[in-house]
## 1
Amino acid sequence: MRSFVHRGQITKVVFGTGTRKGIADEVRALGCDRALVVCTPGQTQQAGEVSELLGPLGVATFDQATAHTPIAVTNKAVDFARAVGADCVVAVGGGSPIGLGKAMTSRTGLPHLALPTTYAGSEMTPILGETHEGTKTTRRLPQVLLKTVVYDVDLTLTLPPDVAAVSGLNAMAHAVEALYAQGQDPLAFLMAGEALDALAAALPAIVRDPADQEARGTALYGAWLAGTCLGTVGMALHHKVCHVLGGTFDLPHAKTHAVVLPHVIAYNAPAASPAMARIGKALPGPGPARAIFEFAGRIGAPSALRDLGMPASGIREAADLIVRDGYWNPRPVDQDAVRVLLERAWAGEPPLSASVDPSDPTGAPRA
Ligand code: NAD
């Protein structure tokens, strides 16, 4: 008889094609009629279309959302929202505008709706990451959960295939860590497995044919599930590594996830058999770590942290930071192991084979 704790989600999710056309009804359903649209400078066109769909309910657009949610940008957006008398925020885009919407909700209480256009999954989580003077902090705040998420597959058709590939691997990383999360939430396990199946099938199809609407829909479905996993259960070593690398060396978010994931899977494999079996079902092949590594290569994702701008001299510093704060992982984490993992990820080497010495209680893979 197993025991577990499951936290349900309160966010309304609308999924499909053309669903953005119902955005005004969704704003009205929340009792709002003065929406502020937020986006990055690169997505003003899609945000403009959403503003048009909002009609008189759209009061203004703030187009300066930035990766990692700098507090200075949030303060500017909050002042702007107050100046225009906004009563809700509608984020159009990926994790950057959605992060801004959450930061605004945390300061103003304004309800937040989003039309996600990447697979990062932030729209389904109570996690707020913010940057202040170069330092990124991340908190779980139930009050920043979105009220409504409108997934419209059409909005993802413009996501370039190389960005779709790494964003999809970012989503797969949420699913992988949900499979071995502390507490073993069975619903999260089911969602994570389904997310991996969907993304494993869809990402190569998108890279082959970026106009494949069916594949775009399957990838977005997988991203929703993976994001829900991220919002439901705690993450482990992989997310810790990516958080430190992103915050310390300003590495690009999704690409960093793509590079690091096979190495963390290899590290955790000896301590997470059911998770590894489920990854193997989604990606059959030479063991889950190697299968993800080869999959990432096939869809054109980068494989080396050095190609993302990480200096070799940063490996030791990163290993220190990663082990500094205690956090849960299925396999105990020590500095030497993390350093070896980072060295391989930095150089673009394949993950260590999960050939394990059975007499070693830590499950350390053989070198
Ligand atoms: P992003 O939102 O910065 O988007 C990446 C780039 O792609 C941007 O230039 C954007 O304009 C462009 N883009 C997005 N969708 C597009 C589309 N459909 N067509 C064309 N261009 C498009 O990146 P992201 O990877 O979605 O999010 C990364 C950020 O989200 C990071 O700051 C990360 O920390 C955060 N994040 C937070 C959580 C959370 O739960 N708090 C989860 C995942 C990511």
Note: Confidence is low (pLDDT under 50) at residues 355-367.
## 2
Amino acid sequence: MTTEIMGILNVTPDSFSDGGRFSDLERALEQAFRLAEEGASIIDIGGESTRPGATPVCREEELRRVLPVIESLAGRVSARLSIDTYKPEVAEACLRAGASMINDITGLRDTRMASVAAAHGAAVVIMHMRGTPATMAHETAYSDVVAEVKEFLGRQAATARAIGVGEIILDPGIGFAKTAAQSFELLRRLSEFSDLGYPLLIGPSRKSFLSTLPGMESPADRLEGSLAASVIGVMNGAAIVRVHDVRQCRQALAVADAVKG
Ligand code: HH2
């Protein structure tokens, strides 16, 4: 089976890796078409950075950033459109405009999100995190990170299913309320999530857990490390990888897919 790639399109001034590069509509559209052409089957559009210390934005501002992009891409790009938001009102407007997937980094903390997805027949990515981007760095005490994340994802998936969501994808949330060691542990033990019975997504791309390794201090220096993390995740069961560098990742994952057979 071919691993799917979710290409990242941050329409934000302050995202940790690509902040400010695609905040203008023309450049955002160009990037979306490039991601699809390079092999992304999903484009994940985000209007609020979740890096530690990012300024939260209100839903009006978030919609002002993402809605024109979704409206312009709907029906014109081969990839599915995903909206990276934890606000049900933002998700709903984006689904009406042509998105078909909700990527919720709070893992349906607001259960209205599941109702919105069910009403529109949209897919949902349920990601694990604790606290908020501002507080999550201090919320990393787990007795067993895999067991606790798995318990949360299983519970939220059951709720989503009961509410009527048809397509559910689970994500352990690399770097979200996890130390670097815990992010590596999640990658190492990813196969333990497979008995939940849902496709797994991972998002290691250019994240700061890699900066604990030599030569990867800045996000710009983390391409090769991100590819290695993606391949390891896929060998351990990830079906979808969320990345900034689609072309390079497509190549690395082709090798992983060929080895898996
Ligand atoms: N990571 C980020 C944002 N959304 N969604 C899922 N499902 N999984 C992830 O690991 C994930 C995510 C953070 O990365 P990025 O969008 O590049 O940065 P920022 O939050 O600064 O915009």
Note: Residues 8, 10, 12, 15-17, 46, 49-51, 84, 103, 105, 125, 127, 171, 173-174, 201, 203, 242 surround 6-hydroxymethylpterin-diphosphate (CB under 6 Å).
## 3
Amino acid sequence: MPSPHDPVQYARAAGLDPDRLPRHIAVIMDGNGRWAVERGKPRVEGHLRGADVVRATVTECCKLGIDQLTLYCFSAENWKRPKAEVDFLMSLLKQYLLDERDLIRDENIRFTVIGRRDGIPDDVLAEMDHNISASAGNTGLTLCLAINYGGRTEIVDAVRKLAEEVRRGELDPSQIDEDHISGALYTAGMRDPDLLIRTAGEMRVSNYLLWQISYAELWVTPKCWPDFDVSVFRAALSDFAGRNRRFGGLANVQGAV
Ligand code: IPE
Ligand code: IPE
Ligand code: MG
């Protein structure tokens, strides 16, 4: 079912230029724990609030007609956290996957996941797989969750895949180019992110989409993820609209040598 919204009108009403929106937005949703601790609450309260913000952000992307939103939900390094927090995050993820079914259907969202499956509890994997297959034919926003995701692990897995193809005699090493590598990553077939948003102020990429963000525009806000509301999101989009993306070339040839 097509989305009932008119994204162009919606973007204009929000003060955004519909022709200058990013097509793929990646987000490092950081600062849930700090948000909670600053309010004298346990860290998990921040994760709970964070799930509501995910819902609001996904809805805004649908309204704006964004092609893809890729959210960093759980990194390959987050297993280092106390077991109680990891268990809470896994059960929250399962609840989120169940709760979002109506939104996925109503907004025509295609749901996907990137990351390694090992270590993810079976009941979470089952809900993930259900949402992936139930939404496979949808044509609206692609919502991609990075779960047990690490950029280096992804590159390791891609190298193994290509090495296997070489061993089977299906690929000559001299044929390997950037497209082969992109096609061997978890994100095969997806366009690279145009905009990478990080909340909670850290100036690092924390092993997120290392290959894919080569030319993404970076936008960092000091606000913690639970405080990332629609107005902050629109500020990021408006800032992106004013960026001059050169990809190593020149913005214009005036004044060239
Ligand atoms: C982001 O918030 C959520 C996850 C990494 C799962 P954090 O839990 O990292 O919160 P801070 O950075 O400790 O405040
Ligand atoms: C990045 O946040 C991972 C997610 C948002 C899921 P972290 O809190 O794990 O990153 P660092 O430890 O500050 O680099
Ligand atoms: Mg953090």
Note: The chain has one domain: 7-150+192-241.
